[in-house]
Amino acid sequence: MKQASGKSLISFAGGMPNNDLFPVKQIDEIYNSLPENIKKLCFQYGPTSGYPPLIKSLENYLKNKGLDVDDNRILITTGSLQAISIITQEFVNEGDIILTENPCFVGALSVFETYGAEVHSIPIDKDGIDIEALKSKIETLDRKPKFLYVTPNYHNPAGIIYTPERKKELLKVLSGTGIILLEDDAYSDLYFNEDEKHLTKAMKSFGVKDVEIIYTGSFSKILGPGFRLGYMLSSKEIFAKAESVKQALDACTSNFMQILANEFLAQQKLEPYLAFLRGEYLERKNLLQKHLKTYMPKEITWNEPKGGFYIWLKLPPHIKSTDIFKETVAKGVVFVTGRTFDPSSKKDDRLRLSFSNMHKEQIEKGVIILSETIKKVLENSKIAL
């Protein structure tokens, strides 16, 4: 975040919205139009489970996504990372096994490490988690993992979206194992093509009865990270314990931000704003894609994302992204190295480019510097060989 905030840097690092995209005017109007008693409530403590009107608005929002909000409960959290932390604290003792994808969201990895979990990772391909590798891992472990953590929609960092078939295969593998599925879904509203919206359907909405699924979501990518608002949707039993864990962590999430977010949802401002964001991110993705095609050496490959924030570049196996980073940062360009997202911190033949936080006019210059650096590292590696 420090590098992403550097004023003199061209940053492909920040997995966050651009400051110029925030709905500042709408939020100003919302706050200024609030009744005096609700404004006062903004400054007060609230229920641990969340501001009741926001929970009601979220129920409608999630119901429109096909999720069952009648037999499950919503817990409002201080960002979705807190939801992941609460779930980990609820289920994991030191030394317990957690399964993740490889690569995996670094924030979640930090949580799992903090609680002393033993993390086993499963590779992913362009369609999702490797099903055969997952089966093999479960069969060969000496004890049952507590849960499998996945980010199926516009994956961070890989940018992929699971195919419907892969989602069904994953649920079939977990069926009857007692392994909980932790489905992290921060990006599903940021699809680029309306015809592909159906691909973002949450696995928790599939109606599978013999897999316990905990679903987490966030306002960070669709309203603003500074709101620090996330949520989890889980069974009533899991919710009850999670609410107690949250009570001990921070008593409640900011009432101020919950009230503003609720009004944004209740006043039907979210969908028009999301339409605006989709257009902005599509434009940035198209620019980055075009310039990568123009300037990148042929040895570098990637999958073009269908939504979200990220493009995940694959390097030749003898090239390390950390070596490229050392060169580009000196030239004023930063990104996130592949090793950051490897649970074992070893695999370093990838790098993540985020287009969400970029100024559009900087993208080409940044790609040129990155491409020239990669070419130089490639040439030096050939000489060394």
How would you characterize this protein structure?
The chain has 385 residues and is of the alpha/beta class. Helices cover 41% and strands 15% of the residues. The chain has twelve helices and 13 strands. Strands 2-9-8-7-6-3-4-5 form an eight-stranded mixed beta sheet, sandwiched between helices. It has a three-stranded antiparallel beta sheet with strand order 10-13-12. Helix 4 packs parallel to helix 5 (106-114) and helix 4 (80-91) crosses helix 8. It is globular and about 70 Å long.
| Percent helix range | 40-55%
Q: How many structural units, i.e. domains? A: 2
Question: H/E order of the elements?
Answer: EHHHEHEHEEHEHEEEHHHEHEEEH
Tell me, briefly, the overall form: globular
Please provide the count of β strands.
13
The CATH fourth-level homologous superfamily of the largest domain: Type I PLP-dependent aspartate aminotransferase-like (Major domain)
Gap between N and C termini, in Å? 36 Å
In the CATH hierarchy, the architecture of the largest domain is 3-Layer(aba) Sandwich
Poorly predicted sequence stretches spanning 5 or more consecutive residues: none
CATH class of the largest domain: Alpha Beta
CATH third-level topology of the largest domain:
Aspartate Aminotransferase, domain 2
Largest sheet properties: 8 strands, mixed
Reading side by side through the largest sheet, how are the strands ordered? 2-9-8-7-6-3-4-5
